[in-house]
Amino acid sequence: MDGYKVLIGLEMHCEISETNSKVFSSAENSYKEVPNSNIRPLDMGFPGTLPRVNKKAVEMALKASMILNCKQPEYMYFERKNYYYPDMPKNYQITQETKPIPVGIYGSLTFDYKDEPRTVRINNIHLEEDAASQDHYANFSTIDYNRAGVPLLELVTEPDLRSADEAVAFLETMRSIYQYAGISEADSRKGQIRCDVNVSIMDENLDDTDPKNWGTKVEIKNVNSFGGVRDAINYEIERQVELKETGKYDEMEQQTRRWDEDTFTTKFMRSKVDAIDYRYFVEPNIPKYKISKEWLEKIRESIPELANERKEKYMNEFGLSEYDSKVIVKDKSISDFYEDTLKLGADPKSSANWLTSVILGYLNKNEIEIKDLFLTPKMLVDLMDMVKEGKISSKQSKEVLNKVLEDKKEPKEIVKKLGVTQISDDKTIRDIVVKVLDEHPDLIEDHRKGKNTFDFFVGQVMKATRGQANPSLTADIIREEIDKR
Ligand code: ADP
Ligand code: MG
């Protein structure tokens, strides 16, 4: 954006999917049910119901707080955010404001953007309950309370992001963290990630570390895909630049807008003067409780290897290229598959080759995920073993793998059925080679004169064995037998 700096701050909401029950009620934390079938009286705000805090959800929230280098609280509090809307029958959401102290404050996250490290300050991360989901039609709306009470983490960044692509790179890193840390599937297609995006622009020559120089912030509510985040930011930048160029920017009020997926534009919702007063107060039905050092220590120890650490390990310990390492860790289920093959004794490099070349290609082509494959880490290891033991050639192994994927049968069974086994027996191959050479004395002469007839000999042996002769052994024997003559 010529002449301007862009400031972006994100409020990223991610549902915690890895608890058994909701954050304050005993209803299952699950999406699969028929609408409005997974609810307890508390989720419906019935009188006399009381919340109980889900310890696992708090643990996961604290874990996220630690990964983001935040400061953890000594005491846990919750607060009521009061508002009237059907998606929250209690008429308030149980959440945490920055005061007293949420699960984490003042952290930072460093992530890769275009191969350069970028650091974003985290203002806070807090734990709250999700609201019901609604669908709006021409003449009516539907509401599903199954989502009401699902644990939700809200992460608020400082306005340290400088472009739409950088914001998306940040979100992708966060998604990976939630997945690797076992906090959430973090699947935006399931509505598990939603963002409020804050955008402003300022003069390029001014100091962007001084809030006095920042432009007027526009908040875009509830963007529910990474593509949407990118498009909404780019549209909003363009809109604000246009206001600057036409001299109307200074009149622009701080406002909330929404992203309209049909028109690819942001639409005005309300200005700051209409801001809702949520009348926060400490939730009286949940006593504040102390968070012990021992508990925090336990949680810290439970943080598993994250994508970046796995990437470093692949490069430094397994000798993979940076590119391949990145490709494998990008999706946790692929990285897990890879690590499972290693646990079964696979060679790190060949296993990585299979994954990055053949298997990922198949997944992309068919738009499916690795968990949808019939292939298991064990089957891939079996296949690699057959190549190593010379039972099948590497060319044959690719065919076998394709059959495994298509026919959903074990590699060993496919090999038996296709009759593809590799002939690595010296005598069998030598007999064929001798016969081929006997039949073509003229071509042996040509070979000696420097003409390439060697491939012809190899081809004849392959033909005679229906492609099953071990290629390198065949080549060796042909060379030996020619030299003998
Ligand atoms: P509010 O008081 O309106 O909630 P905050 O200061 O708490 O605003 O910030 C909310 C979000 O807006 C944060 O993600 C923050 O980084 C972002 N933000 C604040 N000021 C700006 C700005 N000038 N431009 C872009 N984003 C901003
Ligand atoms: Mg919130």
Distance between the termini: 75 Å
- Derived from helix and strand composition plus strand pairing, the structural class reads alpha+beta
The count of helical stretches stands at 15
Q: Gyration radius, to the nearest Å?
A: 31 Å
Task: Describe what you observe in this structure.
- The protein has 485 residues and is α+β, with helices and mostly antiparallel strands.
- It has three domains: 4-298, no CATH class; 304-418, no CATH class; 426-483, Arc Repressor Mutant, subunit A (Orthogonal Bundle), CATH 1.10.10.410.
- Helix content is 39%, strand content 20%.
- It is built from 15 helices and 15 strands.
- Strands 5-6-9-1-10-11-12-13 form an eight-stranded mixed β-sheet. Strands 4-3-14 form a three-stranded antiparallel β-sheet, with no helix packed on it. A two-stranded antiparallel ribbon has the order 2-15.
- The longest helix has 20 residues, at 226-245.
- The chain is elongated and about 100 Å long.
- The model has no long low-confidence stretch (mean pLDDT 93).
- Magnesium ion is lined by residues 95, 128, 154.
Produce the secondary structure layout.
Layout: E1 4-15, H1 55-67, E2 75-76, E3 79-82, E4 92-95, E5 104-113, E6 116-129, E7 133-136, E8 141-144, E9 151-157, H2 164-180, E10 193-203, E11 218-223, H3 226-245, E12 255-260, E13 265-271, E14 281-282, E15 289-290, H4 293-301, H5 307-316, H6 322-329, H7 332-343, H8 348-366, H9 377-388, H10 394-407, H11 411-418, H12 426-439, H13 441-448, H14 454-464, H15 471-484
Parallel strand pairs: 11-12
Antiparallel strand pairs: 1-9, 1-10, 2-15, 3-4, 3-14, 5-6, 6-9, 7-8, 10-11, 12-13
Helix pairs in contact: 2-3, 5-6, 6-8, 7-8, 7-9, 9-10, 12-14, 12-15, 14-15
The structure holds adenosine-5'-diphosphate (ADP) and magnesium ion.
